[in-house]
Amino acid sequence: MNIFIYGILKDSEINKLRKKTRHNLGVKIKEIRESKNLTQVDLASRIDGRFDTSNVSRIESGRINTTVFTLFRIAKALDVNIADLLDIEVFEN
Hints:
- Helix 2 (40-46) packs across helix 3.
- By secondary structure, the protein is mostly helical.
- It has helices spanning 11-35, 40-46, 53-60, 68-78, 82-86.
- It is built from five helices and no strands.
- It is elongated, with a radius of gyration of 14 Å.
- Pfam families: HTH_3.
- Keywords: DNA-binding.
């Protein structure tokens, strides 16, 4: 994971970081899902416990912030390590 934080961030910078992190995480999940030829419905049905397809959509589009436990469940459903989901670029060099 490539996260570089310089000094103290302002609230507006933190909000941008949150948004970009959610977006990039969603892109990574979608990329892995599609590489395995799975639809969002397929992925939702593979996730342990009750998980709605609309939640997959919201996570992939970066509209919601998900928990570590949910990321663990998604990683398990995709048969990847959770670190593979978190291997995202947040700040540009």
